[in-house]
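PT: before anyone asks, these are the final sequences, not the draft ones from last week. 471 residues across everything. Please model them as a single complex and drop the result in this thread when it's through.
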Amino acid sequence: MNASHVHTENAYRSLSETTELDDPRWAFGTGIVEEEGAELSSPVPSGVDATDLAAYCLMLGDDALVLQHRLSEWVANAPELEEEVALANIALDLLGQARVLLGRAGHLLGSDEDDLAYLRTENEFRNVRLVEPSDELDFAHCIARLLLFSTWRLALLQRLQQSADPVLAAVAAKGVKEVAYHRDYAVRWTLRLGDGTAHSHERMQAGLVAVWPYYDELFRSTEIECRVGVDPAGLRAEVDDVLDQVLAAATLERPTIPGAFTVGGRAGREGLHTEKLGLVLAELQSIARQHPGATW
Amino acid sequence: MSLVSGDSRQSDYPHSRGVVAGVVDPEMPMLTLDDLGVIRSVSEDGGAVTVTITPTYSGCPAVEEMRADIRRALTAAGYEEVQVRTVFSPAWSTDWISDAGRRKLAEAGIAPPGPAPTGPVVLNLAPPAGPSAHVRCPHCGAPATEEISRFGPTACTALRRCPACREPFEHMKEM
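LR: through. Structure below.
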């Protein structure tokens, strides 16, 4: 093979070409090794506890990992091809964010992104519970969750850009650009459905009601978040304000449903989850657990 | 046609830089990685080359292919030790796409991006606008086109359509 042959005229052919120069590929992802992800092995900033930092990376990484799985369930199920492509793209952005965050946690914990994604059990996940339940392939329910999640995550990542940790700061700076598109997508659909027909309005309102029990938890502070990241309590005013504007323009009502309960003061960030997380992990992890270390 | 004469083996522009610059993007093969603006640095130390690239999007699946293609091209050019590193900061921007890259995109029917947004993220509550003049049709040149979907076949493109020639096309989103 010579240099002029390398890319070929056809982009798709090069994807299936393999040579002796290729690395073996992971069956479950490509695995960001530290040599490649140059920033993942950055030193821990002074005054920051490495265990805290790893735990925080898992929180934000797990939020993205679990929601991207739920969004990916729409592939081959969306009402229109354009929405299917959009949801898959949003899922892909979140998966990318999750990989870097889990990669950073893996570096700090002596593990790696694949083991963290595929070999932890439910109570080791640190995501908020909003991302766990199935939306039952109800599009309005999907949009309602995405509206809450992306509005909250955008506010969070905007502040996280100032993080002393170079990986968190980099994920945040890149993530802000991506999640801005996600929020815009969710806002547009919320307006279109809420201020659409009587039926679409009713469905969109029902979607909000379905996800609202998990709203309060987004602003619940834990000590780790306050020490090494962004205190989520400080996001509430901004997120409330954005949602109020969107819901008013969409002629929707803000639900007045109490937040899902905690148990002994524990919620998603402490590993207390809904039973729905188990179903996500069963699907997400089954191949990796059946074929440990497989490559293709 | 290049007007540069002589070879490119200068200390500030090593030969390997040229090899890497000519590798094409796996998803948009009309662009080289240099056109796309994802190459952050190329350094040579003896026969060893270290290349640093940045992904366009966090989850861009093409990054693995880019890395493999860079390794292949450098190995084929005689470099024995090749390391390709990925950095996320500073975040890639469509402003880094070269003028040549913008021309090639338009020639391939993909509307190039306008200037990347700066400042706070805007909350847009306006109803969907009709055709807008910020993206010109890459097929017929009509000045105003309309968006079909924010998300296109690759992470970095949106879908639009031209009301004049009625053709759909991709638009590289400002990022």
